[in-house]
Amino acid sequence: MNLSKTLFSLSVATLGLLALPSAAQAFSLSAIDNDYDFNDLNPNLSFVAEGRFGNNAFNGDYELDIHGVDTSNPTRTQDQANFTWTNSLLTEFTLTFDALTRAVTYIVGGQTLNATANSNPINDIFIRTRAATADTSILLSNLFLNGVDLLGSSLADNADDGVEYLRISGVSDSFTLTGTSLMSWTDSNMPRNSRLAYQIKVGSADGGAEAVPEPVSILGLALGGSGLAMMRRKRNLQKS
Q: Torsions phi, psi of 92, nearest 5?
């Protein structure tokens, strides 16, 4: 565990103890380094909402989808749509899950996708960002869960390790997650075929070394997420 994530875990745990508890919404926030660490958590997913770089046109490979519902074929999409991303432009998204009907609604820039989640339990939301082409980056930020500002983000850029996860634990009922995505690239290195993408993976998983041991209050979550973002920016500045 690197220093920034050690400090992050300590800050979240400490601030969670200092802040007033929220019985209704006790979310905890943690970071996962890569896909290997994510898979070590033995994830059991109910659905995945995705925004990806296909061919960035309305006449070819899709950019939006909901998949992961079919446990026998997790990559099969239940709904998909074309979408044209704009370089370095904030794009709003809304992801809604109804625990009673298992209905999933995913809205990105005016495009609406619908699906029905499988019966797997839901306790976690994993926000994965991936930038696998040189001079590209993707940031998911301005995140609100059930109207609560998480003040956390998931940033991936090819100058770093290319993959980043933000884990939100303590989700046990219907929810609405809103936020913005920001994709950036150069004309000479335009990504293709999911090499610039995000996935919002919803389900449950085992605990891990990066998980906060106790649920934190909303205040602790917010301040801890802000500290993570500042530490990551400092780390990237030191690399440049």
A: -80, 145
